[in-house]
Specification:
- This protein has 2 domains: 53 residues, Arc Repressor Mutant, subunit A; 137 residues.
- The longest helix is centred in the C-terminal third of the chain and has 24 residues.
- The protein is elongated.
- It starts with a helix and ends in a 7-residue tail after the last helix.
- It has 203 residues and is an all-alpha fold.
- Helix 4 packs parallel to helix 7 and helix 5 packs antiparallel against helix 9.
Length: 203
């Protein structure tokens, strides 16, 4: 087998394992999933699993690191946000990625997921937002206040994304991105805009 064929087989194997793990984690907590159960669902033997991962938790860690890297690349593309422009393009790109990788992201963000992935994402986004705001406002004397504000905004956004994933992502990434941008700019006042449109939020 040449190197290209070997790489293709490895990617296919890991994809089957990831898809199987996402199916199982939609049903139960990761601590209740065995390597044998996962391998059977992926139609692989246990020995194949152990060629790539030490255990289920090691596999989850690898997946988290890969997704964090890809999401970080999205943030890198869209930051820093300049002037008073809404982060709409960044939200669309992020939510589209989640939608296109629904099984994988559902596993990492769903009700049976651990807090580790959410915590990693919050830290990454919060650090980027805080740096962006400090640079924009040149507000060294407001550093503590901006740190609190960035936590408030970022954890709120993450909670919205988790709720969106749990609800089956029925609203489009564009609809969610617009709502998140309006929430960030106007707080609870974003509801006034919906009322003015007759309560049609497209959610």
């Amino acid at each position: 087998m040449n190197e290209k064929q070997g790489d293709r087989r490895v990617r296919k194997t890991k994809k089957a394992l990831r898809e199987s793990l996402s199916i199982l984690m939609a049903q139960k907590n990761i601590r209740d999933i065995s390597v044998q159960e996962l391998s059977d669902l992926a139609d692989l033997n246990r020995a194949t699993f152990y060629l790539h991962y030490k255990d289920i938790y090691d596999m989850q860690q690898h997946i988290e690191n890969e997704v964090v890297k890809e999401i970080n690349a999205i943030l890198e593309t869209h930051m820093p946000l300049m002037d008073n422009r809404q982060p709409y393009p960044m939200f669309v790109a992020l939510l589209t990625y989640i939608s296109e990788n629904a099984g994988l992201c559902g596993m990492l963000l769903g009700k049976n997921s651990s807090r580790t992935f959410l915590d990693k994402m919050c830290v990454i986004v919060e650090e980027r937002c805080l740096k962006n705001w400090l640079d924009r406002y040149q507000a060294k004397n407001l550093e503590k206040e901006l740190a609190y504000f960035s936590s408030y905004i970022v954890y709120g956004y993450v909670a919205i994304i988790v709720k969106w994933v749990d609800s089956g992502m029925t609203a489009s990434p564009e609809t969610m991105a617009e709502m998140m941008g309006n929430m960030g700019l106007h707080g609870i006042g974003f509801l006034e805009g919906i009322k003015e449109k007759g309560g049609d939020s497209a959610l």
